[in-house]
Amino acid sequence: MVEGFVCVAAVSPELKVGDPTYNASRIEAAARETADRGARIICFPELSLTGYTCGDLFLQDSLLAHAKEALIQLVANSEGREEIVIVGLPFSYGGKLYNVAAVYSDGLLHGLVPKTHIPNYGEFYELRHFTPADKPNIYVSFPVRENEFFEDVPFGTALLFECEDEPELLFAVEICEDLWAAESPSTTHARAGAKIIFNLSAGNEVIGKAAYRRLLVSSQSGRLICGYVYANAGFGESSTDMVFSGHSIIGENGVILAEAPPFSEDVILSEIDLRGLSHDRRYMNSFRVHDSAGLEYETVFFSQKRASDAEGDHRSGKVVSINKTKNADSGGLFRHIDPHPFVPANVAERSERCEEILNMQSAGLTKRLRYTDSESAVIGISGGLDSTLALLVTARAVKAAEKSLDSIVAITMPGFGTTDATKGNAHKLCDALGVPLLEIDIRASVTEHLNSIGHDLEQHDVVFENAQARVRTLVLMDVANQRNGLVVGTGDLSELALGWSTYNGDHMSMYGVNAGVPKTLVRHIIRYVADSEPALADVLEDIIGTPVSPELLPPDEGRISQKTEEIIGPYELHDFFLYHMVRWGREPEVILSLARSAFSGKGRNVDADVGHYDEETLRNWLKVFYRRFFMSQFKRSALPDGPKIGSVSLSPRGDWRMPSDAEVSGWLRELQ
Asked: Could you tell me the CA-to-CA distances from 504 to 96, 270, 429, 466 in Å, in that order?
């Protein structure tokens, strides 16, 4: 595995109905080619050795014998190969015929899993030929070579396949209709601990079925917090009245990772994030992992070591081998690692997300205004991104609270670092919105304060900077008292993570509307408003293009001299680090590895809007992130109320409870 990611594949090769010998040759070739591309577990469709549409040919002994011979040959030919392969075939046992999935690798047949739910409606009449899985696990004798029998091949639905050296790699199998049934075996599999479900399917196409199939895979993987690999039969199965499309899907925890569009016959590969799934199963205490429905699961173990090197009998059936993911063409993962995980890449989805966030922010503020019976909303306007978003939200909120825009008290407070550009944008924005703006110069107040404590005005240190932030907060609070109002906070989620605020300065407010919005998303929300409201477009675009800065140090020839991202690092990196640390609980080295994939500028993650960073730069800013995140918890512990927006929240009353004096050294040691 690569950092807890295991590469899986769904393959739907060209088949001939009723010709197991031909089909086995196609399966073997496709499995080898897919494994050479890096796939570790490869799933083929339902009844892929014979074809699904054989009808009454399933009652012919010749077809059943040829299918068994084909599987024997596949298993034998897999010796020395390390990929796990899952294929479908009809299997006769105890005078009954079962629709089964066979799991094998490296010359070993690990198990046979029968189909539980047999459809017998519409175009399906499987009960004419097949018996549903109807008993606990048993063992069957299966010939794997001439004059050699495998006495202990497990046969049953309660089977788990687990890697001895990587116990997080634990998977199970169900077949086609099992997913569509009300009580799917995958539910029991997941509760027994399976992290990945493989589904061998032969679902024909009718109008609307592809969308429903996609929804099923997405929802099942989300409900079960698992990876779900759905390998569907291709158009080679098409016969008589049914058409098949090869619509295969790989889902994970409610998200579709890869999909072969109907009639494309594409091989799809992606990685399942096993550690991420483990994290979410631990996090969601409503998810219970245990044997259910009275079934006792049998676990078939396989090993990371080569079978020939394993202790004991190579043919014991208990130790097999698998390969490591080797995506040589990309130098990383097959799945796309989103460099901006908080920002939807799809424009339509991003617009929808921006509108939803604006509604959530304004709804929270509207409630607070009404509950406190506030006559005004007081907000400091700098001409920067965060205060701009907060003002846009406040304008929505006062309208929802049935107040006029005059109830907003916008205040711009020029200090020692304020530039004409940002102050001008503050005025332009308020004019465009129709919001009254007060200008209160704080330089005299700050000067008097610094003189009173004996601080040299030429000493531009943290005292010089924070005095300005605290005086601004003092002004806002006192004006709010004058106007029977409340102060709207402007700080965003990224600043909370990094502690980029002045304690009891801009850190404090009576409701922080941006507390759940990361910096990388703030820009897009403002751009969304600019696109939606032409009257605001010019000033908003100018604000978006202005470097992020607290403007607490004197300008350099009229230009901003204090650029935040030059001091603490690029926000796109810190938001990436924040997402993977808090949302997924990932280790520092894993985050660094994912950052390489996302920001390398190579392979699958090339994006013109994404910065490219070398190893040293990524490691350096990740260290900065951890140091600042840990030492700033005391600020978050005293955080004002603000709306939770997404899956990452740092509210001490909601999602994130961390001791203010926790030690960061263990995390930093991993990055040395």
From this structure: 76, 47, 27, 9
Provide the pLDDT confidence category of residue 603 given band limits of 50, 70 and 90. Answer: very low
Question: pLDDT tens, 370-428?
Answer: 999 999 999 999 999 999 999 999 999 999 999 999 999 999 999 999 999 999 999 99
Lowest mean pLDDT among 139-148, 334-343, 500-509: 139-148
Instruction: Check 7, 43, 54, 176 and give the catalytic one.
Output: 176
CA–CA dist 449, 243 (Å, integer):
81
- Predicted confidence (pLDDT) at residue 309 exceeds the cutoff of 70: no
Q: How many residues are there in the chain?
A: 672
Helices 588-599 and 615-631 meet at what angle, rounded to 10?
130
- Which residue among the candidates 46, 82, 237, 495 is catalytic per the annotation? 46
| DSSP conformational letter for 147 | T
Position 122 pLDDT exceeds 80:
no
CATH number (2.30.30.40, 3.40.50.300, 3.40.1010.20, 3.40.50.620) of 347-670 reads 3.40.50.620
Domain 5-309 has CATH 3.60.110.10: yes
**What pairing do the DSSP bridges indicate for beta strands 5-10 and 268-273?**
antiparallel
DSSP code at position 121? S
CA pair distance 269, 231, nearest whole angstrom: 11
Q: Look up residue 642 and give its amino acid.
A: G
Reported as a pLDDT band with limits 50, 70 and 90, residue 168 is confident
Annotated catalytic residue within 115, 403, 428, 635:
115
Residue 46 annotated to the active site:
yes
Residue 231 identity: A
Residue type, 331: G
Domain range summary for the chain, segments of one domain joined by + = 5-309, 347-670
Average pLDDT of the residues of the chain? 89
- DSSP assignment of 534-581 equals HHHHHHHHHHHTSPP----S--BTTB----HHHHH--HHHHHHHHIII
Let me know: does 178 contact 185? Beta carbons within 8 Å.
yes
Per-residue pLDDT for 73 more than 90?
A: yes
Give this prediction's pTM.
Answer: 0.88
Kind plus residue range of the DSSP H or E element containing 247: none
DSSP label of 56: G
